[in-house]
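anyone seen this seq b4? input:
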Amino acid sequence: MADIPCIGFLRWARRRLELLGIEILIPPESVARDDLTLSEWAKSLGGLVVTTDRGFPEPKILLPMDRPKYERWLTILLKEISARRRGDPDESRSVVTRHAHPSPRAGPLWAPAPGPSRAKPLGGTGR
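predicted toks r here
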């Protein structure tokens, strides 16, 4: 299910998610307008609400609002659903507390292996 800001995203991702066996429900507007009603509806159906609202009641999957890109949201959503299906409490909800892309000031995400470089130098002697 989706909160109002995420309805367009779930419509976009519906075919991909249904191919993976994930059922998508777009709530009626009368239900979607009220957070508590939507949350209770999700609980009664055993589902989750996809939202960008941090204050939304459980059960929810929280997507980051910084520069929303549907492809990034889909990756976060699939990781969260996978963690919940495995029942891994440490991994579940960890996706929503960290940024999908770290700050550029955070440094590189990888470091070269220690030891001498095996790369050939650029250029050459022209021979």
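Helices lie at 7-19, 29-32, 35-45, 70-86, 94-97. Confidence is low (pLDDT under 50) at residues 94-113. kinda curious what u guys think
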